[in-house]
Amino acid sequence: MVAKAFAPTGGMERCALELARAMLARGHKVDLFCRNCQAELLPGAAIYRLPERFRFSSVINAWDLALSVRRQLAGRSYDVIHSHERTFCQDVLTLHCFSFRGGLEHYRGWRRWDQHYCSPRNAMYLMLERRQLAATPWPAAVSGTVLDDYRRYCSLAGTAVIIPPGVDPEWFHPAAIQAARPAARQRLGYGDERLVVLFAGSEFQRKGLDFLLEAAALVPGVELLVAGRGDRAAHFNRLVERLGLRERVRFLGLVGEMREVYAAADVVALPSRSEAFGMSVLEGMACGLPVIVAPNAGAAALVEHGVNGCTGQSPAALREGLEALRDPARRQEMGRRARLRAENYGWRQMADAYENIYYQVAASKARS
Questions:
Q1: Is the pLDDT of residue 145 over 90?
Q2: From the CA atom positions of the chain, what is the Rg in Å?
Q3: 114 pLDDT above the threshold of 90
Q4: How does the average pLDDT of the chain come out, rounded?
Q5: SS3 of 113-174
C-alpha cells in the first residue's frame, strides 16, 4: 500500500491508516511505502520509507514520489498494489480528490489557454495524471462526485467503483456525545436555548465559511464554532466584524479531539464550493447530529433533504436550513435518521469493499 502518510489526522491519511489496520487485522501481509507513518499504530506491517527531496516544488515532489515508488517496487512481487497517491504502478488507485485536468477547465478565456498550454508545471501534472490513470485497472473514487469528474475530464482505463471513506461508529456514538454534551456546552458558555453550528475544515474559502457566516447573521440565536486552521484568516475576521458576529463566532483553530467539539454542537454545516467528500459530515451524522451540506459535495449522497439533514450552499439556502433546525424535536428526529445512515459507512464496510477488489485483482493475476 502506497501513501505519503498513514496517520490518524487528515482525510486521505486516516483512510489509508484504517484500511491498512483492517487488512492486518484480517491476517493479510501488508507492506507500506510512505514518507511518514506512525508505526506504533500499525504493528505487523513492514514499512518502507520514501524520500522527500524536492519540497520546494509540488510537481517535482509528486514526480519524485511516483518514481521512488516504482524503484522500490521493482523486482518485488505482490498480489495487490494499492496506491493513494499519483503513482503509475498500482492495481488499485483511490481517487481522494478531483482531477487536475478538471480543475484547469474552470478557467475561462485567455487564462484557460495559458493554464493549459503555457505552464510547464501544469503540463507535468497532466502527464503524471494521464500515466496514473492509464496504469490503473481498478480506480476507486471516494464519491460519485469525484468519479463523475474523472469520467468527464479524463480517460479511465479500468473498472471504476465508488468506495466512500468510513467512520468509527463506536467512537462517534450518540450516547458518548450526549454524555459529554453538558460539560462541553458549559465549557464554551452555551445555554440549551442556543443553536450551535459546527464548521470543520482548514480551507475556509473553498469550504464556504463565508456563505455560512452570511446565513448565521440572518438567523438570531445561532452560534458558530469554526474548527480548523483556515486560509485568509484576516479576511474572515473582517467579515465576522462586518456582519456583527464577533460575539457569536468562535475560531477554535486545530482541534486535537473532534469528538468534544461535536458534543457541543447541534448541527454540522459544510457548504463547500468544492468537496470530494467531507469527513465532518459523516462524523457528525455518526454522532447523531443533523447536517447541512452543499449539494455538490461528495458526502451529499448520504443526505436526504429534510429527512436526515439539509442540502444547501447559498446564504439563502443555509438560512432556510438553519431556521428549520431551530426546532429541537425536528433536530432530534433528523439526527436519529442521520445516525442510522452513518452506520452503513463504518471503516469495516470500507475495508470489506476494498478486500473484495483485492481478491479479484489477485485472482486475475493468478489466471494470467
A1: yes
A2: 21
A3: no
A4: 94
A5: HHHHHCCHHHHHHHHHHHHHHHCCCEEEECCHHHHHHHHHHCCCCCCCEECCCCECCCCCCH
- CA 72 to CA 229: how far, in whole Å? 35
The pTM of the whole model exceeds 0.85? yes
What cell numbers appear for 313 in the block? 450552499
Domains and CATH numbers, the chain: 5-166+347-367 (3.40.50.2000), 174-342 (3.40.50.2000)
pLDDT tens per residue across span 247-275: 999 999 988 889 999 999 999 999 999 99
Secondary structure (DSSP) of 303-368: --BTTTEEE--SHHHHHHHHHHTT-HHHHHHHHHHHHHHHTTSBHHHHHHHHHHHHHHHHHHHHH-
Q: State the pLDDT confidence band at 117, using cuts at 50, 70 and 90.
A: confident
Calpha distance 248→199 (Å, rounded): 13
Q: Is 158 within 8 Å of 138 (Cβ atoms)?
A: yes
Lowest-pLDDT range, 100-114, 140-154, 183-197, 210-224?
100-114
Give the separation between CA 161 and CA 163, rounded to whole angstroms.
Answer: 7
Helix orientation angle between 315-324 and 209-216, rounded to the nearest 10 degrees: 60
